[in-house]
Amino acid sequence: MNSKKTEEDITISPLLMARDLAQALLDKKAQEVVLLDVTELVDYVDGFLIATGTSQPHLDALTDAVTRGAKEVGLTVLGVEGRGGQSWVLIDCGDVLVHLFSREGRGFYDLDALWCDAERTEFDAEASATA
């Protein structure tokens, strides 16, 4: 029996792809970038990537960065909701949902607290810049 894995046998998990999206957000100066692993909590998605933007143009730039980055890592953008709105943009990348908030929107919806049982990975812009 051949135990050698072929390239087709190796798949990258959606949560690893989400880490690449987190880096794209950090590159655009997103704040408070967090990945919540919800694989054990829900069956419709593997992770929530949450970030804060400082203004509507900044949220638009973050949305563009995520949609470009998703295509680069092999995630399909199934939809974008809330673009041009005031406080929340939701980008559906299938196995990963990306939530981009204004500071006020993030505090109001408080997904961080709502999903407090999820495994949490915080991304630090300063650590990312030195890596």
Let me know the largest β-sheet: 6 strands, mixed
Number of helices: 5
Radius of gyration: 15 Å
Number of strands: 6
Q: What share of the residues lie within helices? A: 25-40%
Structural class per helix/strand content? alpha+beta
Q: Which whole number gives the mean pLDDT?
A: 87
Q: What form results from the Cα inertia axes?
A: globular
**Poorly predicted ranges (pLDDT <50, ≥5 residues)?**
5-10
Give the topology string: H per helix, E per strand.
Answer: HEEHEEEHHEH
For the largest sheet, list the strands in their spatial order.
Answer: 3-4-5-2-1-6
Tell me which oligomeric state these chains represent: single chain
- Proportion of strand residues: 25-35%
Our measurement of the CA-to-CA distance between the termini, rounded to an integer number of angstroms, reads 41 Å
